[in-house]
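To: structure subgroup
Subject: Chain for Friday's discussion

All,

I'm putting the inputs and outputs inline so they're searchable in the archive.
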Amino acid sequence: MDWVIRQSYDHENRLVRRRMDGDGDYEQKRVFAYDGNQIVLDFQHTGAGDAAASDLRWRYLWGPAVDQILAEEAVDGGTDDLVQWTLTDHLNTVRDIAKYDPQTGVTTVVNHLVYDAFGNVTSESNPTIDSLFLFTGRPFDSDTQLQNNLNRWYDARVGRWLSEDPIGFNGGDGNLYRYVGNRTTDRSDPLGFVECPGGQWLWVGTTRGGQVILGYYYYKA
């Protein structure tokens, strides 16, 4: 079966709704709620109709830094063992996922992920334990194998953006499709505008060509 994916964005270019269609009914729907630029609630609905409050499936906990994902809580009847902790590196890439076992009182790593330099997952110790956020802490679409960096989509398989830099050459690279100047081991680009050195950054305002606009700028913590 061929699937069609339709996506809706808000006025700040945040992905808020995703629908998958195999036969014209759009039977798989996903809705995201945000705090700033970070997804905090994830609603998933299968079948006719739209997603409702009862379709909440995940809550996401963030630290104060840009894309600093800390934990993911599955919403399923209030069970005690549904929180998974995301252990990240200097780029906020999720390297390990840990879970707490209420029966034993022990927290263990349940999935260890290995990436290549451009963010492709090359191996996992337990692929059944998944996370929405992977390379540099950005949302990953497992159906399209693309990463959402707010203003552009990134394809780790080819190490390039799908579209030109929205701020053109003001992003600092003569190649408008190249990801962080190919310096993938110590750079990230949360907004899809301009590369940032590795480390923790805080959301304050957005920069386009050195000018602060639209409310998000990187400030080193």
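Points worth raising on Friday:
Residues 4-220 form one domain.
The first strand starts at residue 4 and ends at 9.

D.
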